[in-house]
Amino acid sequence: MSGKYDNALLDLNKILKMEPNNVCALRNRGYTYILLEKYDKALNDFIKSLEIEPENLFALTCRAEIYSHLEKYDEAFSDYNRVLEIEPNYVDALYFRGELYLKLDKYEEGFSDFNKVLEIVPANTFTYIRGEAFMKLDKYEEALLEFDRLLEIQPNDVYILGIRGECNMSLEKYDDALLDFERLLKIQPINAYALRKRGETYLELGKLDKALSDINQSLEIESDNADALRNRGYIYKMLGKFNEALDDLNKSLEIRLDTLTLWYRGMTYEMLNESKETDLANKNIKQESSIKAILYDQFKDIKYIAKGGFGKIYKATWILNSEETKTVALKYIPNSKNFNNTFIKEVCILFFF
């Protein structure tokens, strides 16, 4: 792909050598640099083009996008605002300014821009980002309505099918999530993301064989995906294949360091008794061979870590007495009335290893 852009740059450079102020060539070369993520060079071209045509909407919008990539947010907003002063209904500026607002956690302003886009172009499926914004606010029902509406317009949009599947997973509507990922895979059978997410859904349902099959296929396509390696490592741990689990978890951590993978690896080391040092937050926790109830008010500083097999994981401080505390991991288990054999197996692993 980059070869095509390089050829375009050769031609544009020839034109600009003969005509240094050719504004069309400057804009096209600047946009090519954006596609190649060479933002400093792109910025130079758009600055020069705007000196020649200071109110060109495309150039102003592109320069704003470059400023956003360079984290020069004040300059980006200045250009977006200038575009919308000239043309209040310029969709690209509204959309990208809305994205920038969301990036800076200014959700109200972001929603306002996306709503204006919908008023101008009701069938604009790119406003899926409004649904994503609802998800960031944990408003999953509102997000789901947004994705449903967009899929009525374009029922085979693979991106929206995927993000709706993730939304259904967050709502613990795993059967609906499976339908979304299966629809996606009918359209794109060799889609590593969809295979991985369907595998994660099977994992939440305790269907380890199906989960492992999907994640294996996803890793054949993307062998260095940290999430897929972590999840396969978790499945191997659940199947008692601890060496294979450690191989995957170690590879995942080489690609990206994250708390959930460290926690899984720590549990696996504990199970193997191969190392006195574990990746658990408190390495001195002594496991007990019995289960007992602990009141919720005996925990403080509860912080969400991540979602992992069968529930959500939190870090907390356990108040043992007036002077002594201990750092522990808590796990929230939804739909506990639907325990299955795989869930019981995890409980046994946690308490008896």
UniProtKB/TrEMBL annotation:
SMART domains: TPR
Signal sequence annotation: none
Database matches in Gene3D superfamilies: Phosphorylase Kinase, domain 1, Tetratricopeptide repeat domain
Protein kinase domain segment(s): 299-353
Pfam families: TPR_1, TPR_12, TPR_8
UniProt keyword annotation of Repeat present: yes
Domain of life: Eukaryota
Presence of the UniProt keyword Repeat in the record: yes
Originating organism: Gigaspora rosea
SUPFAM superfamilies: Protein kinase-like (PK-like), TPR-like
MF GO annotations: ATP binding; protein kinase activity
The protein's name: Protein kinase domain-containing protein
Keywords: Repeat, TPR repeat
Repeat positions for TPR: 23-56, 57-90, 91-124, 125-157, 158-191, 192-225, 226-259
